[in-house]
Every structure is written in structure tokens, then in C-alpha cells.
Amino acid sequence: MSDNFVEVQGLRKFFNVGNNRILKAVNDISFSIKQGETLGLVGESGCGKSTAGRTIIRLYEPTAGSVTVDGVEVTKLSKSKMKAQRRNMQMIFQDPFASLNPRMTILDIIGEALDIHGLAGSRAERKRRVEELLELVGLNAEHASRFPHEFSGGQRQRIGITRALAVEPKFIICDEPISALDVSIQAQVINLLMDLQKKMDLTYLFVAHDLSMVKYMSDRVAVMYLGKIVEIAKSEDLYANPQHPYTTALLSAIPVPDIEDEGRKERIVLQGDLPSPINPPSGCPFRTRCPAATERCAQEAPELRETRPGHLAACHYA
Amino acid sequence: MSQEMNVNVTPGAGSNPFEKIGRDQNGGERIVRKSLTAWQNIRRNLYENKLSMVGLYFIIAIALMAIFAPWVTGLITGYNYFANELANANQPPSWAHWFGTDDLGRDMWVRTWKGAQISLFVGIAAALIDLVIGIVYGGIMGYFGGKVDETMNRIAEILYAIPYLLVVILLMVVMPQSLTTIIVAMSITGWINMAWIVRGEIMRLKNQEYALASKALGAGSMRIIFRHLIPNAMGPILVTLTLTIPGAMFTEAFLSFLGMGVKSPVASWGTMIDNGRQAMTTYPWRIMFPALFLAVSMFALNVFGDGLRDAFDPKMKK
Ligand SMILES: Nc1ncnc2c1ncn2[C@@H]1O[C@H](COP(=O)(O)OP(=O)(O)OP(=O)(O)O)[C@@H](O)[C@H]1O
Ligand SMILES: [Mg+2]
């Protein structure tokens, strides 16, 4: 057995979008995360990050592939075993305004986690536990009786975090937890997540659509394009030596603070739009927008291979 | 993510680029503004709609009269809805008989309110049966989708296509002529409309992140449907419910008019209208009062239902 806490193998999620058309939202991705580690998952909007996250914790049934969390193969679990396994893995959602039921109080939203798994013996204990959790994420215990609409985006996101923590999970998928928040609030939430990680030895899959925040959070980063992982490496290594042209383009989009550096680095603007995941290009999925694409890229799909020690990229020319 | 944020991130910075913000500085986490809950908002919208409030008052008044008038009148005058008093037949409205008397000398005032009892009861009972069946059937159709939805929807469509009167007449053959039969007959096809409304709402809501979050916590389908989705679909459900009542009241009157209604001496507005029609020109009060109250209550319920719909419609919010 490896010491990987999370192991994703050949995961696919296809949606049937009618008229016999198949949308390959997640198309054969594999990666692993060690205990206590954060893996960043980046890619532009629509590349399948949320679908990947939702399939990993089995909110969607995978089309193919396997997911192992804490030594348990999740994709094959029966209903009752899956319910128990859900205590191990949780998700924090992208939209803090849609992720809390507007008809329920905070007490009930968080309390539901306790109810489902029978974690609170009495109503008083339930309330006490919820208040404890609220304080843990920096909210007031008295907030428990309020409804979601009374909170700001940042506060709501903290409530979402509290709900996930209520079942004491070891693995949390953070699906762009800050992209809907004000810039001034983003750092608070990030710091909270990192604090909690240290305190509770959490393992994160941290999804984002640009590289700057991911870099700050993650030990390793996977770059996703059109349902596939095109590069995966240690954070510093990925930033210092991007191997895939798509990663290079994403990195060039991060503004650099000092002026000298700015001059050195030229911004690569990608041509065209993300191709449709219903009709992906032949060969390399990125070739239609790649500045270095050749004949070979159209013929042959590049495999994810080690181009530097511990650094995988899916490009013929990496 | 915005640009300002990115600027803060120094590549390879060892120091923490984010200032950590602690909890509740200067009471910043406290919620000052007491904002309105969704229901308070709806109530306010409703209050502002004068016509619909008038409708509501009418309904309440008629319901109160239906409950108390026959009983109180009986206490004071000794009139009841069933005892014949042929010597007193076909009296026009007077101080003794406010609404006159019918062909058997029964007090029309008492009979009108007795009729209101039956008519309202039929309307409300039919609407509630529609509500229960519609919510369960529509909730399951909408949530599970796919083959389940297709099959259940086909069944509903077939039922819906059967001419309604045919169902009633066939049912009258096998069941005794009674209130129960009328209500059952109405419910056989009546719930379908509600089921479709619920189905649409559930389909719209089921991929909301709060429903996914609940699933991620381990909640079963029934919990998600009935705790999370249905409460959030309550607006359209209530509106449909309100608008079902006048429809059912009219159907009952219509069936009574065709001679399939409740048996004498029990009165409903429908049977009273049917009875009064035979002497419409000579003793107009016998048809006038039940017809007037049937029309007024249907109008009031429709106006109130429309107002409710507007109150729930977010586009109407100021
Ligand atoms: N339930 C679904 N049915 C059909 N197609 C879907 C479904 N969910 C997602 N998709 C499609 O799958 C693709 C990937 O979507 P996904 O939400 O995973 O992207 P994302 O990377 O999370 O984007 P974003 O940054 O906007 O959140 C998109 O083309 C989307 O339209
Ligand atoms: Mg997403």
C-alpha cells in the first residue's frame, strides 16, 4: 500500500446531453494526494473541475475509474457503506449563496450533518456542538438561530465550511471556495482553511480557476484542460519550470509585482475558445490553441509522462 | 479572481502575503441589520396587493359564516337545513327568512351557509389530496429523472388524457352517490397538474448546491426531496393549491347540476343552484343566493391565488 490518502485512477464522468451526444466532462484523470497535503486543481471555466470534485465524492456516479479514500474504494460502495464513508470526505461549494438552504436556520443546516450520522444525542447537545463549530470558524454562537440571507458572502462560506467539518472529515474538496467572494474576504477564508488543515490534519483537493491562489495553498498542483490533466507537479516546480504550453499560458496571465520581472515575461494570450467537450479535438486536446502545435499533435494523443523528476506533463514536446 | 489579489502574491515568497484577520474585530461579525425573511417579504408583497387582500378577507368571512352561521341561526330561530315546512314554501326574503325559503319551506339562509360548508369542504379536500399525491409523485419524478421520470410522466399523461366526465360517470356506477365519490372522482386526475408543477420545481432545484451538500453529508433522496427541495418549491405549490380550490368547488357544483351531487336534504351550492333553476323566474332568490356566493368565493380565491403568485415572484420585489 502506498501512503496516498486519496487515489484517483482513470476517473471519467460523461454526461448524456440528448440526441446521443456525450459530453466528456471528466475524461480519464488520475492523481493521488498524501495525508495532510493540498493538491491544487486548476483550469479555466468549464474544463470539468467541479464535475471532477463531485464525481470523486460521488455526488455524481462515475462513468469509469476508481477513487480510493483512506484505503476505501469509494466508487463501489453500497448505499449504507457509502453513507458511513461520507463522514470521511466532504465538499465546500463554489457559490456561498446557493450552497445554504434559504429556508433553514444555520442551526439546522449544520445540525443536519449531526442528524444524518447520529452524532448528537439530544437537542441540547446538537445545539452546543453547532455553536462550538461556529466558534471554530470564527462566527458567533448566537448566529445559529439566523437564516442564511442574514449573512455576508464570507460568513456564508464559513458556514459552508462548518457544515463540512461537522462530520469530522479527513478529506475535503474545496470547489473554488473563494472565487465568489470579495477580494478582502478571500484571504480570510484561505487562512481559515489553512489553519483548519494544520489543526485537524486535513487533506485538501483545492479547486481554482487561476494559479495564483492555488500556489499559495497547494503542495502540488494539477492543471486540467478539457476534462484531462495536462500537467501535475510540485507547486514550486510547476511555477519555475512549466512543461506544458497551457500551463505556461496560465502562468503568464498572473500579473507579476515587480516591474523588472514584468518586462522579462511576456503574456501569452490563448487563441480561440475552449473547444466543446462534446466534440473534443483529435489527438492532443490543447492543439487547437497551442502555439507550438504540429501535425503529430493532431494524430496522436500525448500521454501524461514524467518529463522531470516528479513532474508529469502530457505534451509531445515537453 | 481579481487582479488586486494576484498582485499581492509574490512569487516564491516565504512570508505570509495575507494579513491574518481574527474573529469579531470591533464586532464586525455581528449582524446589525435585521433583514426580512423570505416569508416576511412575501407577506409584505401580499399586503400591498389590495385586491388580493380583499379576496382573502372574503374567503375568511365566507369560511367563518359557513362554520358558525347554521349553528348560531339554529340556536336563535330553530331553523335547520333539513326540516320541511311546506306551509312556508317559496317565501321571498323577509325579516323572518333573510334569504327566503325553498320549495320545501326550508330557510335559504341556513341552507346557503350549510351549502358553503359542503362546497368549501369539497374544494379544500380535493386540493389537499392533489397536494399530497402531487408532491410525492412530482417530487419523485423530478428528483430521480431519467427512466423513472419518463415512465411516471407517461402514466400521468395517459390519465390526463382520459375525459374527465367519463371517469366521474364510471365511478358513479361503482360507488354510491356521495361526497366521498365526488372527491375521489376529482382526485383521480386532479393531482396531475400539481405533480407537474412540483416536478418542474424539483428539476430546477435538485442541482442547487445546498441539495448537493446535503447529499454529500449522506442524506437520502427522501430527506433531500422533502426537507430541502419541497420547502423551497412552496411558493408555486401554494399558488397552485389556492387556485385548485375554486376549480374543485366549481366541479362539485357542475356535477351537482348534472344530478350527480350530494343527496338531499344535504345541500351544496351546486345542488341548490340545480334546485333553484327549476323555478328561476318565479322564485329567483332560490338560485340567486347560492349562485352569488359560489361566484364570489371563486372570484375571491382566484384573486387571492393570483396575488400570492405575484408575491412569490421575485421580479415583483421592490
Ligand atoms: N449535470 C450536467 N449535465 C450536463 N453537462 C454538465 C453537467 N455538469 C457539468 N456539465 C458540463 O461539463 C463541463 C464541465 O463543467 P464543470 O462545472 O465541471 O466545469 P468547471 O471547471 O467547474 O467550471 P467553472 O470554473 O465554471 O466552475 C461543462 O461543459 C458543463 O457544461
Ligand atoms: Mg466549477
Give the ligands present.
Answer: adenosine-5'-triphosphate, magnesium ion
Classify the secondary structure makeup of chain B into a structural class.
mainly alpha
Uncertain stretches of 5 or more adjacent residues of chain B = 1-15, 24-28
Major pleated sheet of chain A: 8 strands, mixed
CATH architecture of chain B: Orthogonal Bundle
Which radius of gyration of chain B do the C-alpha atoms yield? 28 Å
- For the termini of chain B, the CA-CA separation is 31 Å
The succession of helices and strands of chain B, N to C, reads: HHHHHHHHHHHH
Instruction: Based on Cα principal axes, name the global outline of chain B.
Output: elongated
Strand order of the largest sheet of chain A: 6-7-8-3-9-10-12-11
Assess the beta-strand content of chain A as a share of residues: 15-25%
Overall structural class of chain A, as computed from helix and strand content, comes to: alpha/beta
CATH superfamily of chain B: MetI-like
The largest pleated sheet of chain B is described as:
none
- Mean residue pLDDT of chain B: 84
The percent range for strand residues of chain B is: under 5%
CATH fold name of chain B: MetI-like fold
- Residue windows where pLDDT falls under 50 for at least 5 positions of chain A: none
The number of distinct structural domains of chain B comes to 1
Could you please describe the fold and organization of this structure?
The complex is a heterodimer of chains A (318) and B (318). With 318 residues, chain A is of the alpha/beta class. Chain A has a domain at 246-318. Chain A has helices at 49-56, 79-85, 106-116, 123-136, 153-165, 183-200, 211-217, 235-240, 245-252, 259-264, 295-299, and strands spanning 4-16, 22-34, 38-42, 64-69, 72-73, 89-92, 171-175, 203-208, 220-225, 228-234, 305-308, 311-313. Chain A has an eight-stranded mixed sheet with strand order 6-7-8-3-9-10-12-11, with helices on both faces. A four-stranded antiparallel sheet of chain A has the order 2-1-4-5. In chain A, helix 4 crosses helix 5 (153-165). Chain A is globular. The mean pLDDT of chain A is 91. Chain B is mostly helical and 318 residues long. Chain B is built from twelve helices and no strands. Chain B has one domain: MetI-like (MetI-like fold, Orthogonal Bundle). Residues 1-15 and 24-28 of chain B have low confidence and may be disordered. The interface between A and B is large, with 61 and 45 residues. Bound molecules: adenosine-5'-triphosphate and magnesium ion (MG).
